[in-house]
Amino acid sequence: MHPLLAAVGLQLAMLSGSVAGPAAQALFGFAIEGKATRSDLETLEKATGIKPLLTEIYLQWPSEPEHGVFPSESLRTIEANGSLPVVTWEPMFIDAAKAEHAIPADAIISGKYDAYLERFARETRKFAKPFLIRFAHEMNLARYHWGGTPEEYGPESPARYQKMFRHVVSVFRAQKANNVRWVFCPNNDPIPAEPWNKITSYYPGNEVVDIIGLDGYNWGTTQTRATKGWDSEWRSFESLFAAPLQELKQVASGKPAAVFETSSASEGGNKEAWVREALDSAKSLGLVAVVWFEVNKEIDWRLETNVSKAVRDAINRENLSAPSASSVLCR
Hints:
It contains 12 helices and 10 strands. It is of the alpha/beta class. The protein is globular and about 50 Å long.
């Protein structure tokens, strides 16, 4: 059994009271952009000094159901590297002008994309090894408006999302693609912060969700109202995730929890200290895993920026000392 899936089972047992033990250090992984080639992973490990236990990639849907590919090469490369693959599966396509278009909910729920889903599910079954699919993440952000246009993002979005999630899972189960685990992963802060946009409103149900996740970032003081339209402030890992995690557990009691995207800015505080505190907080919150967004994007989120080799080596030692997830959770 893969370390993370063993961790899932063990944490469920701990939550039910059948296993006793101290809180464990969270498994540590990276989210990267693009395909995961052998060269990409070697470069990642050289830059960070960390061999990740999870490696997350991003994949968009095709504009038409007859198109679209299964990321078999990336998944096999990640698995061969000793890491659990995580696919953030985004139901949108990007046109030639680089504009994003969400796949209409009706096209998914009505079955128009079933041929694509069935092909993907069959390839999933053929892959045979376990991996995670994080379907339509951060659904509580206007940025993504899954299933509709930006103008359609509103009070009807949660029910629409639930139907899409449940339909996709049902297609995979019909194809007996049982090696995949499904992740429900909202953003830590809903935008807009309206009553209809609560995390719990989107939850599609315990029967179709295997792992609950959260995304959230410490933007430090990098964003200002004058330049970006909002003022950011330094926030600890615990302040980002403790409250939404508690909210999620109200509807997903007993599900293992992980953070699938996080990072910290350098401006406004001490990034290295933030990382140290984040790992302690992840442990106290009972998180199975923490995935670091290893990308220089809006700002330089990379772990090797303003975080010492000593800290990164310590993270790597935690990962390398875990030949199984049980040894990580129960040490």
